[in-house]
Write a structure and sequence with these properties.
By secondary structure, this protein is α+β, with helices and mostly antiparallel strands. It has helices spanning about 1-10, 20-30, 75-80, 90-110, 200-205; strands at about 35, 45, 50-55, 65-75, 115-120, 130-135, 145-150, 155-160, 165-170, 175-180, 185-190.
């Protein structure tokens, strides 16, 4: 994994690692197939297991205790025809939002015995990354209470602990799940490699102008 990140740093010359690149790197590291999906829960497949891959920025990944994972767009309007959601009964709307998530998870579990999420917590320059994974689960609607906050976002709390677990934004229907970062997470520190020289790469490839055909559109 570190080798793949070092190569990316050397090639790009900057600490930019996008979500699809992380999916591809993780798949390559475990010998799995990378098959980006619209659902985003089964982008990486190996045997009877599927993973959804997420990236999150953090100033210091090794010190991060909790994360907000953007987990799709859950629209009660689109899924249930519920048009007036903002300011409506929070318990009712929260139940619809969780139902959409649960159905999504169930549809993937019909195809795979195991469904997991793998998370890369990254610093801005990729000098430090933390990796962990966990089982992707359905949520029991009865275990959470919901309320609208001052920003008109719907917030879900664990009834037993009072912990903030979900945020749903009516504008855009973005659904966010708050996860704890496990203590046993993998921590990798990476030295910044020198950027690969463009001309050297082209020379190594044996690049020639004959490779390119310029066509003028009429």
């Amino acid at each position: 994994m570190a080798r793949e990140i070092v190569y990316l740093l050397a090639f790009k010359g900057k600490g930019a690692l996008e979500g699809d690149e992380w999916e591809e790197i993780f798949a390559k590291c475990i010998g799995a197939d990378w098959k980006p999906s619209n659902v985003g829960l089964d982008d990486v497949i190996l045997g009877n297991t599927a993973w959804g891959a997420k990236t999150v920025k953090a100033t210091k990944p090794s010190s991060q205790k909790k994360l907000r994972l953007i987990s799709g767009r859950n629209s009660p309007n689109y899924s249930f025809g519920e048009q007036n959601v903002s300011g409506a009964d929070p318990t009712f709307i929260g139940g619809l939002v969780l139902n959409i998530w649960n159905e999504r998870v169930s549809s993937i579990r019909e195809k795979f015995k195991h469904l997991r999420t793998v998370v890369l917590v990254k610093s801005s320059d990729l000098s430090e990354v933390v990796v962990f994974e966990f089982e992707t689960i359905r949520y029991d609607l009865e275990l959470f209470r919901w309320e609208w906050n001052k920003n008109n976002n719907l917030v879900g709390y664990d009834k037993s602990t009072g912990e903030h677990r979900f945020t749903w934004q009516p504008h855009g229907s973005q659904f966010t799940i708050i996860e704890d970062v496990p203590k046993h997470s993998l921590l990798i520190k990476i030295k910044q490699p020198p950027k690969l020289d463009q001309q050297t790469i082209l020379d190594t490839l044996g690049f020639d102008k004959s490779w390119v055909t310029v066509i003028k559109n009429s």
